[in-house]
């Protein structure tokens, strides 16, 4: 297979986003690169409102990370993070030595409070046990054969992890088991999409969001009963509607499948009328469509769906959606802005003539 161009090889390579691990921030595994095409296709701006788009740890390192979930939080045993220690009321202030609290002062306080001391001892024992379990779990990193790694992860399922970590281990095992099945099938696949867009890397050991992107790219439309189906993956790994829409949108827009893009947002009311609805802002949808070279007709349709008038106008200006700009200035009865915009258009173009007709319409009561 010939080497793909760098810009075509994006989603299997790298990204600026770090994966969460159970280790310190400088752990070597957190430095490994991730799947860039998936990230770039559905990239969330750093200043995006968290109520609008859920954040995702793009943990695309090929070491089988299980930290894939949306709005990811660190494990309570992660080094350097805040521990979920039981609250103790009416604890007096502790003396400080340098920049840290005095351990002897803490001991005195705990000795005077039997309940607090028992909590603390139990907490330390629990943390010690969990660290040992996680050290055992991380042995999967040293197993190169995917079948043996899957079997090792399966053996970890019976270990007494904390509830959150047990869920992660279960998801990791299920994901790898699923990937092994998909990989074996797709390596032999002769469907047209595999010929038109040859796979550039194995799906094995990729994180869940990259796996979902792959599924939306190569297996979109499959029934939920198949392991490679996007809807099956979404249900199995409890992927939120927002994250699913972002991922599917990126994959289908990459393929220029505008019908599938529309189907992501089409909903019917009880009267049977179809309208577009999105769990993310339509301004984000427009940005993603533009990054994937959507035609102006498609961009214009989604710019028109932006609720905020200022965002709609700025989007229309940015992406040269002339009809939206003209109609917005018309609705604002802003004659001066129409005149300014007309001068940016080619003479005798349909948009130029449309503005001219509006300016000559004596029935419009302009505000300026």
Automatic annotation (TrEMBL):
It comes from the Eukaryota. Residues 79-100 are annotated as: Disordered. Its main location: cytoplasm. The keyword Nucleus does not apply. InterPro entries: Spe-39. It is found in: Cytoplasmic vesicle; Early endosome; Late endosome. The keyword Oxidoreductase does not apply. This is Spermatogenesis-defective protein 39 homolog. It comes from Cyprinus carpio carpio.
């Amino acid at each position: 297979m010939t080497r793909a161009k760098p810009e075509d090889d994006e989603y299997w390579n790298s990204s600026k986003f770090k994966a969460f691990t159970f280790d310190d921030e400088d752990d070597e595994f957190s430095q490994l690169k991730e799947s860039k095409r998936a990230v770039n296709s559905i990239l969330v701006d750093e200043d995006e409102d968290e109520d609008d788009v859920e954040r995702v740890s793009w943990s695309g390192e090929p070491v089988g990370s299980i930290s894939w979930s949306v709005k990811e939080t660190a494990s309570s045993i992660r080094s350097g993070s805040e521990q979920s220690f039981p609250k103790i009321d009416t604890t007096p202030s502790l003396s400080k030595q340098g920049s840290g609290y005095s351990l002897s002062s803490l001991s005195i306080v705990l000795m005077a409070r039997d309940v607090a001391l028992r909590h603390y001892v139990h907490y330390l024992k629990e943390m010690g046990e969990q660290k040992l379990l996680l050290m055992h779990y991380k042995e999967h990193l040293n197993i190169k054969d995917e079948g043996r790694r899957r079997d090792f992860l399966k053996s970890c399922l019976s270990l007494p992890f904390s509830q959150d970590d047990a869920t992660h281990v279960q998801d990791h095992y299920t994901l790898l088991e699923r990937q092994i099945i998909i990989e074996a099938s797709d390596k032999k696949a002769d469907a047209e999409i595999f010929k038109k867009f040859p796979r550039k890397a194995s799906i094995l050991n990729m994180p869940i969001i990259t796996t979902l992107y792959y599924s939306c790219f190569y297996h979109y439309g499959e029934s939920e009963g198949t392991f490679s189906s996007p809807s099956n993956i979404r249900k199995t790994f409890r992927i939120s509607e927002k994250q699913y829409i972002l991922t599917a949108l990126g994959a289908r827009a990459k393929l220029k499948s505008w019908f599938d893009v529309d189907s992501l947002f089409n909903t019917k009311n009880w009267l049977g009328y179809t309208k577009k609805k999105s769990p993310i802002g339509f301004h984000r949808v427009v940005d993603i469509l533009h990054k994937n070279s959507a035609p102006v007709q498609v961009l214009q349709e989604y710019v028109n769906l932006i609720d905020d008038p200022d965002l709609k106008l700025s989007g229309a200006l940015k992406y040269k959606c002339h009809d939206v700009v003209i109609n917005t200035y018309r609705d604002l009865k802003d004659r001066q802005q129409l005149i300014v915009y007309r001068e940016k258009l080619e003479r005798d173009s349909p948009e130029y003539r449309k503005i001219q007709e509006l300016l000559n319409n004596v029935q419009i009561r302009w505000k300026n």
